[in-house]
Amino acid sequence: MRRVAVVGAGMTPFREHFGLGIKDLVPMAVSEMAAHVDKGLDRADIQAAWFGELSTTDGFPSGILADTCGLLDIPVTRVENACATGNDAVRNATYAVASGAVDVALVVGADKVRESSARSTFWEWAGMTRDTAWDYPLGLVAPANFALHVARYLHESPATREHMAMVAVKNHRHALPNPKAQLRFEITIEQVLAAPTVVEPFGLYDCTPQSDGAAALLLVGEEVVDRYTDRPVWVRGVGLGLDRVMHQHKRDMTSFPPTVKAARAAYAMAGIGPNDIDVAEVHDCFSGVEMISYEDLGFAERFGAYKLLENGETTVGGRLPVNPSGGLKAKGHPPGATGVAQCVELFEQLRGEAANQVDKARIGLAHNIGGPTAVSAVTVLGIGKD
Amino acid sequence: MSYTRPDFRLLPTPAGYLQAFWTGGRDGQLLVYRCRSCEQYFHPPGPVCWRCRSREVGPEPVSGRGRVATFTVNVQPWLPSMPPPYVIVLVELEEQPDVRIVSQLVDVDPGAMAIGDEVEVFFEHWSDEQHGDVWLPLFRPAGGAS
User: Fold this and answer.
1) Which positions in chain A have a beta carbon within 8 angstroms of at least one beta carbon in chain B?
2) How many CB atoms are closer than 10 A to CB A341?
3) Whole-prediction pTM value?
4) Which has fewest Cβ within 10 Å: A31, A60, A259, A362?
């Protein structure tokens, strides 16, 4: 397969965009992406698009993208893979460019969670994303799905709620300089621990906000990179992994096997290992999920995630900064946009242009887990081609 | 905390492969699908064993006893029909611990319970025009201990 590069990236702020629909957010993100292509982008160059979106609040997603971006003469494909949607859209476009089928591909991710009252959102999403025949009647909403995992993780590992709070405090601090982030305020360990409980062991500050937003990337084949930039960021590896959808047959609640599988595939394609990663955007929909993911991605030994937090290793300035953008926790989480926006952050980090810049970042990793814990997508980006 | 039956619940529709699980309580039985070829239980039920792909499958009664694999206490009032707090539990069945039932655990002090606790099933009968008769399998501490 030929090499694939990211040559443009942009996103809307993640917010409660009550006045904007998907049809507004998508062209805003694409416009910002195009404005950041160093040597400019002629819309007619785009040969195909992949659109990651979970919910369809404005109607048929591919048509909305084609319509609102003036891309009526190219194929547009919608990708839906639960919370792994964004990085899976990147993966699909990467294969299309790598195969030689197209030279220039657009990747967009978008979602609008705040279409209904905050009170009912998770139930409505649960109704859409879960097998309602089984767990739904007995109260198993999305936060409770993750809570069952993290409760067992706290039972088996030395980690405590204080370590979970460290994740939330870190990611809030990281979001401060990021103008695209939704929650730009600092919190303390004490505030996290004293916050109202949502579903044990998660308090309010352990949870991601509900967000609207869109993000876009331009992927091109290596032969045409020079037309767009002299400073490309290369797609080094992509991976997707799955597991049983429901908890009934999950043998080990303290790990997410989809992440292990997706990371293995992405590392193998990139020819690297976890120790080569300089910066990572990790799926911290709930604070404890970032800890489990450190272990699944190979950043920490099994049940050793708490040490990285105690030593500040995953804070900007540490050995392996995680979620310098603020992560899902503080930047926000419009699911279809989340993975694409992680790659927008890595694009800026690897080019030295990020709002919260990590020193000498050369290789970055983006990670999603969802469905609620049955699918993961991992993308590895790098400054070097090999 | 002592369990009080709520005024209203969301009900499943006990049709097709779902019927046995949601109506076994009529006879006081927790019915879990088992493959007659590889003899393994599996849940949720369906037409094909996911292990050996046999179609010789059907519901069989299990003891209804098991252990807490993990649990969480929901404190957020998501729906008026489910007033918080309530305990969501993942129960490992005595017959085959890798077969697990998601349900609610009642008659328990959440602060006093732990992973590994022994629990047993009981059934709560509901009936309405849309869903017909449904027996929800809920769990409580084994032997009534808390």
Assistant:
1) 119-120, 122-123, 131-141, 143-144, 147-149, 151-152, 155, 196-201, 246-251, 253
2) 34
3) 0.93
4) A60
* Rg of chain A over all Cα atoms, to the nearest angstrom: 19
Q: Give me the pLDDT at residue A247, please.
A: 76
**Is residue A333 annotated as a catalytic residue, yes or no?**
yes
Give the residue among A377, A298, A374 at the shortest CA–CA distance from A145.
Answer: A374
The string of pLDDT tens digits covering residues A56-107 is 777 899 999 999 999 999 999 999 999 999 999 999 999 999 999 999 999 9
Q: Residue B73 and residue A140: Cβ atoms within 8 Å?
A: no
For residue A46, how far is the Cα from the chain centroid?
Answer: 24
CA distances from A385 to A222, A231, A274, A354 (A): 9, 11, 18, 21
Q: How far apart are CA A71 and CA A73, in angstroms?
A: 6
Angle between helices A22-35 and A61-68 (to 10 degrees): 50
The tokens for A111 are 């979602």
HEC sequence for B88-136: EEEEEECCCCCCEEEEEECCCCHHHCCCCCEEEEEEEEEEECCCEEEEE
Please write the tens of the pLDDT for every residue from B8-65: 888 888 889 989 999 999 999 999 999 999 999 999 899 999 999 999 999 999 999 9
Contact between residue A346 and residue A233 where contact means Cβ atoms under 8 Å apart = yes
Nearest residue, CB atoms, A247 vs list B74, B90, B138:
B90
Percent of chain A, pLDDT > 90? 86
**How many CB pairs lie under 8 A apart between chains A and B?**
101
Q: Say yes or no for a CB contact (<8 Å) between B76 and A198.
A: yes
- Cβ atoms A325, A281 nearer than 8 A: yes
